[in-house]
Amino acid sequence: MSRHIACLSFDFDTWSGFVARGMSTPTPVSRGEFGVIGAGRILDLLGSRGIKSSWYVPGVVIKTYPAAVERVVKEGHEIGHHGWSHVPPAWLPADREAEEFERAVETIRELTGKGPVGYRSPSWDISDRTIDLVLKHGCRYDSSMMGHDCSPYFARRGDKVAADAPMEFGPLTDLVEIPISWSLDDHPHFEFIRSKDEVLPGLSNANAVLENWIADFEYMRRTTEWGMLAYTFHPYVIGRGHRMLILEKLIDELTRMGAVFLTLDEVQQEFRARSAA
């Protein structure tokens, strides 16, 4: 029997991603703070559809907006590790990466009473040490890499990559990788960012993006017996009015197409069971 899964995941970053890139003046901070408003709208929508989702929250955000994050927990959604700050692990020295990772684990434990099952790196850029840290702290899955579009797989560690030599693959681990894609992420489609060095235009037509998101699910339905897609949203992005409308349309259309909505934790459990069968 075919089974096609949609994971709705939310990176609840608020201002942390802007500040990690040096954008700490009042306007970008306020732009991120809108995420608290957006989160409330999203939770209302998910509640009306009876859908559970996965939320990845930096430790600094948990500590800054405890009531907003507590609502996520109270309404039955998964809380995943998303760093202490939103600085990408690949930018951090080893000791600071380890310190921030552990600090975020303890913050989630204080919030939920248990450590996180899943990890998603800030900006989807892990270091060559990150997989070891994820395993050390008991996480069962990662959601930071892009080696497939609609199937989890077991992550490797210790690959050796050089521009002038064939790649040497490292060993497989017991960590399930739940793949993501920038094309299934709201941020690059919608967010206008202007800095001293670059301009990211964003501001795409929302209905055109919705067509892409639905088409990826349709392709998965046609080509796989069992598959999953991880959609990634940011409350300060998707929480704007016209984008909330396409999120609602996405949920309703995927439902019509027979989607099963699961958290990423539920997906990794199902994938492990299938792999062991």
In short:
With 277 residues, this protein is of the alpha/beta class.
Key attributes of the depicted protein:
11 helices, globular, single chain, 5-stranded parallel β-sheet, TIM Barrel, 277 residues
Query: Any idea what the radius of gyration is?
Result: 18 Å
How many β strands by DSSP?
A: 13
Q: Which spans have pLDDT < 50 for at least 5 consecutive residues?
A: none
- Give me the CATH architecture, please: Alpha-Beta Barrel
Provide the residue-averaged pLDDT: 96
Describe the structure.
By secondary structure, this protein is of the alpha/beta class. It has one domain: TIM Barrel. 45% of the residues lie in helices and 19% in strands. The protein has eleven helices and 13 strands. The strands form four sheets. Strands 1, 2, 3, 12 and 13 form a five-stranded parallel β-sheet that branches. Strands 4-5-9-6 form a four-stranded mixed β-sheet. Strand 7 (160-162) and strand 8 (165-168) form a beta hairpin. Helix 8 packs parallel to helix 10. It starts with a strand and ends with a helix. 43% of the residues are buried. The mean pLDDT is 96. Is involved in generating a small heat-stable compound (Nod), an acylated oligomer of N-acetylglucosamine, that stimulates mitosis in various plant protoplasts. Residues 26-262 form the NodB homology domain.
